[in-house]
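Following up on my earlier thread - several people asked me to post the actual chain instead of describing it. Fair enough. Here it is, all 201 residues.
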Amino acid sequence: MNSLIGKKVVLASSNQGKLRELQNIMGKLHIQLVSQADLGVPDDVAETGTTFVENAIIKARHACLHSGLPAVADDSGIEVDALHGAPGVYSARYAQDGDEANNVKLLHEMRDIPESRRQARFVCVMVFMRHAGDATPIIAQGVWNGLINHGTKGEGGFGYDPLFYLPDRGCTSAQLPAEEKNHLSHRGQATRQLIEALQRI
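Reply from S.P.:
Thanks for posting it. Predicted structure:
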């Protein structure tokens, strides 16, 4: 039997959109996923890594230290080819003023980029740490390819979802139903990989 069934695991994030998505996807493992905000874990850990993997480990270790529980953390962002991979690991703090400002800044940076060069990808790295000293964390990664739209569209999702256009769906990720987005997304891919690994614990 899986040793995590019925266990409480802290999500190293206070982002409610992210919590809802992951609770949805991870429900099948019968893990009680709780936000670090609900456990009084400070939200101010410095993401000093230069890669998604490093930042996810930093966040997971921080949550483990403060909660005494196993932790799941992700670091995710959008990489735009025409911007040499920016905003990348700095996606969440690209404009230093939240999602809307980030989208405005990205649209401004892409204002002169033609359709043929608007390729982008969402990347998500997820980490599970059993405890703060875990030297062999479980790491999973998902990548979701698309284009940067010329304007925001859709009310769903969060972050760069209103700008992330999916040619095969004819819409942005913010226009997808939640269930479809969870199946296709970088976070959905990484979470399913993580679940497969956690089922073997």
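The longest helix spans residues 52-67. That should answer part of your original question.
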